[in-house]
Design brief:
There is one protein chain. With about 180 residues, this protein is mainly alpha-helical. The protein has one domain. It is built from eight helices and two strands, in the order ααββαααααα. It has a two-stranded antiparallel ribbon. The radius of gyration is 17 Å and the shape is globular.
Length: about 180
Amino acid sequence: MKTLVEHLSTYAEYHRDSRNILTHLFGVPIIVFAVIVLLSKPAFEIAGVTANPAMVGYVLALFFYFRLSFLFGVIMAVLMAAGIYAALAIAQMSTLIWALGGVGAFVVGWIIQFIGHYYEGKKPAFVDDLVGLLVGPIFIVAEVLFAMGLCQNLKAEIESRAGKVRHGSEQAASV
């Protein structure tokens, strides 16, 4: 299995334009939340406990995230738990509101993503590797941590493999 650095570096190769990263800061969380909402409605019981596909996906995703990094695993556990909590409230609404809200958010999130990839000039990472769908959320967490001045060694390692993020005049020259 690839390491955190390998996953983030591969994903970063598709995301070196600062405008693309900015759109992902909004688009990825919207898409993740939309998926959680859509997977929160169908409920079933396991050993007397009510569960849903979102909760099963949460547990499976956390195995992946904790395998890569304890820190990122904890952050994703908290963020995804908050998403499930909010999604359960939406899932208890009418089926129409639940479905329109989930599908609408999913579509809006992908529109935002594709705008970013227009600026990037590259296809989304998941097109070449479906694991990119799981890496996208931790990439966003990493970018937020980097912006806060944290995990600078991780940032340097990713940039040594994928290159630095392009800003300002660099973008104008590359477009």
